[in-house]
Amino acid sequence: MRLSTPNLQLNEQGKLRHFLTLEGLKQHHLTEILDVAESFINPLTGDISKVPSLHGKTIMNLFFEPSTRTLTTFEIAEKRLSADVVNLNIETSSTKKGETLLDTLWNLEAMLVDMFVVRHSESGAAHFIAKHVAPHVHVVNAGDGQHAHPTQAMLDMFTIRKHKGDIFDLKVAIIGDIQHSRVVRSQIQALSILEAREIRVIGPKTLMPSHPEALGVHVYDHIEEGLDGVDVIINVRLQSERMKSALLPSEKEFFNLYGLTKERLSYAKPDAIVMHPGPVNRGVEIDSEVADGHQSVILEQVTYGIAVRMAVMSIIIDNAKQLNTEKQIPKKVTEEARS
Amino acid sequence: MRLLIENARIIDPSQQMDQVSNLYISRGRILAISDTDPEGFTADQVIDGTGKWILPGLVDLHARLAEPGSRYEGNIASETKAAVSGGITTICSPPDTNPVNDTQAVTELIQRRARQAATAFVLPIGAITQGLEGKMLSNMAALKNAGCIALSQASQPIQNPLTLKNAMAYAASNEILLMLRCEDNELKNNGVVHSGVISSRLGLAEIPTSAETTALARDLILAEETGARVHFSQISTARSVEMIADAKKRGMPVTCDVAIHQLHLTEYDVMDFDSLFHVTPPLRTHEDKEALRLGVKMGIIDAIVSDHTPLDRDVKLLPFGESEPGISGLETLLPLTLKLVEESVLDLNTAISALTQRPADILGIHNGSLIEGHYADFSLFNPETPWLLNRSEMVSQGDNSPFQGWEFTGQIETTYFQGRPVYRNNQV
Prior knowledge:
The complex is a heterodimer.
Chain A: H1 27-40, E1 58-63, H2 69-80, E2 84-89, H3 101-109, E3 115-120, H4 125-132, E4 138-144, H5 150-164, E5 171-175, H6 182-193, E6 198-202, E7 218-220, H7 223-227, E8 232-235, H8 241-244, H9 251-258, H10 262-265, E9 273-275, H11 288-291, H12 300-338
Parallel strand pairs in A: 1-2, 1-3, 3-4, 5-6, 5-8, 6-7, 8-9
Chain B: E1 2-12, E2 17-26, E3 29-34, E4 45-48, E5 53-56, E6 58-60, H1 76-85, E7 88-93, H2 104-117, E8 121-127, H3 140-146, E9 150-152, H4 161-173, E10 177-180, H5 185-188, E11 193-194, H6 197-202, E12 206-207, H7 209-226, E13 229-232, H8 238-249, E14 255-259, H9 286-297, E15 303-305, H10 313-316, H11 333-342, H12 348-353, H13 357-363, E16 378-388, E17 407-417, E18 420-424
Parallel strand pairs in B: 1-4, 1-5, 6-7, 7-8, 8-9, 9-10, 10-13, 11-12, 13-14, 14-15
Antiparallel strand pairs in B: 1-2, 2-3, 5-16, 16-17, 17-18
């Protein structure tokens, strides 16, 4: 049995080389992302201006699974960093013709790509790709199966920090489909790395992972109990597939048991914020009154997403530059010593 | 050809033997085990066995020899070579070949190829249902008569209980041994890893323990009702061990085996999505592993198998859930079993017995024994040699072993099949 595995996403200095998952990262990795993201946002206007950080770099958005929002925010983030951007929708491309994932990847790598932003329906796909790319190529996970969606989780942390200051000492409740959500897995990891005081998950057992304790969360079967005294409420989208596979009877029953209503919101702290990674199913996970209410921060999350993704990509490229310069210094010294 | 191996430690659970003595071989058969030469015996070759062990050729109840068909890597010639390099001289090959071994023609093809290779004894297992589809019975009696040692569904268990019950009843009236792996497809639900701590963390699709245990419960009840002789293949959970122990206590003639990797690996080994650890049934918890080890120790689990599945590199070079399950296991069956002796989990006799006499008993054959008059299938083993598993040096055409880099003590020097050396370790 292996207890620990070398962290694939860190370079020899312990800095981010890829961004695949939050598991195994330290608090300083996360706060660096949040701080750098903050620096991209104009404090007066709230705008994000264009910077030359990634000028001359080519980023390929490799989406094996359809997405509009994530792809768009990544693309905007990449362009604000002055990178050259190529979008590739593999779903309709070569893998359908029998080319293996690795063949596709190596072909694309030969086109002088510096970074792949990958979305794939298999858990672990981003790890798999990171294991097999050339050493100079970076991988950012834009969602893999039910495993991780680390940039989404980081933008949620950014949003929480904006409203609540330090995440340390907060009580956070996540409602809904925990088992099938890569976003939730990453949120839980981020919250525990940032030492939130308590992480609660609320929902029926059919939507819970088999061993929630492995995630370090407390499970609540009943929403009122779960929301009692929390600072942050995160709602998760409920997909209609769950009804088809008999995990739930109906959307209506789910709303009756777990829907976030104004009345239920009153169990949380009065200044609690309500978040949702979107798209929102009004009347299924959340009542419109709450989604549009003053405690909701749902729309803000979208703009912060651009800044956070810019931060992740620029940190990775900066780390690589630093590593290269430091590697070159001793070489120069030895050359001088020889001459 | 008369061969004498002098002064070796001869271990043969079928004769409750563990002693230093001489092994005499004549015309491919065991002539005697004795401290003095049998009358009139003059050896053509004498080998000094001082400090070495002689082990009966091992009997592996489940190893894919990849022929006919291209689903797996290699062929009967290559994989029997891998087997004897691991001390295995009798191999049961499951019916998930291409075409499926559901006709006499395929059975005979396998037998013919094995005879041509002449490296090890190959016992084909026929398919219970046509094409392994779980619907229509194959000509079960004809397969038995053609030489199938047992019938099974390989990794495609029959889901329909009525079909299974009929297959069992029919097998019972024809005295056919059924080898069944228990798995409920609906509960498996396309899962790829054990439903536990790691699946919860990694978001990989889960296979609950109940996928095995509910099917096992059903199969045990149907076996009791029909009187079929059933052997359960590759059990993987603590609960399964209990259930089989209960059935044995009730006097049912059931037996079972475990794949050797289940006695060493757990769900935690999947932690970094390494597809070499993708197997079916999945690697379970630490508690399951301990219960399986105890099951072997107490004799509830009768045999340890390789569940050898040689795969092409391409089908493992994929994200975990898309990769093919399976481990190339022939070469690590003995070393990993002896590791359990080293770790004081098993005594040597129990360990060797689970690889020789007991699987042979399940099949009702005399292989895996050094009794006088039997074929001289055995290996000469140096218990001191330290070595490291290197995938690139594996004999099997499939190098899909998760045991890369594992250290072992003790190595096979020579394996004999019917008195002929069929494997020699180059390092010796």
